[in-house]
Amino acid sequence: MERKYLPTLSELIDRLSIVQLKEVFIPEHKSEYSKEIKDIMHDIQSIIDENKTSINSDTIRAIVVLSQMNLHIWHNESNYRKGIKDGNNLELTHGINGIRNTSKNKIQEIVGGRKDYKIDCLAADFKDWEISW
User: Fold this and answer.
1) How far from each other are the two terminal CA atoms of the chain, in whole angstroms?
2) 10 Å Cβ neighbour count for 114?
3) Helical H segments across the chain, by residue range
4) Are the CB atoms for 49 and 28 separated by under 8 Å?
5) Sign of the CA dihedral running 67, 70, 74, 80
6) What DSSP designation does 54 have?
7) Does the pLDDT of residue 119 top 80, yes or no?
8) H or E segment at 81?
9) Neighbouring residues of 12: CB distance < 8 A, sequence distance ≥ 6
10) N or C: more exposed end of the chain, with fewer CB within 10 A?
11) From CA 130, how far away is CA 65, in angstroms rounded?
12) Whole-angstrom distance, CA of residue 58 vs CA of residue 105
């Protein structure tokens, strides 16, 4: 039976970015994360090969932005869980998640497929976070 709802290329790249953070920040499970990274990379390469996808500079930039947003969210939420309130703003995390989704949509443009159309805009207070796509 053929699957009907596979992770998209952008979802796999997003997951790779997150698992890479886990491999670094949660070293007691490094081997498990390393295996997951290899599995994700296999699937990413399969999609690239299957679609004869050529990655361009716009795609690379979207991947860099996605990874940076994931890192910021990681630090913000980690500090919040530790009770560190200074510099943590969950509204900013919500806005950054919109940038994440925009990045994933830009990645999807190279192979087509599902996109996330719920992209929240950043509040006026967070204009410094806007990406110059």
Assistant:
1) 40
2) 14
3) 9-25, 30-50, 57-81, 90-108
4) no
5) positive
6) -
7) no
8) helix 57-81
9) 40, 43, 44, 47
10) N
11) 11
12) 12
Read off the tokens for 32. Answer: 């498990």
CA–CA distance, 86 with 131 (Å, rounded to integer): 24
Q: What are phi and psi of 98, to 5 degrees?
A: -65, -40
Q: What is the pLDDT of residues 12-62, one digit of tens each?
A: 999 999 999 999 999 999 999 999 999 999 999 999 998 888 889 999 999
- Amino acid letter at 74? W
* Amino acid at position 45, single letter: Q
Two structure tokens written together for 96 = 């950054």
Contact 70, 97 (CB under 8 A): no
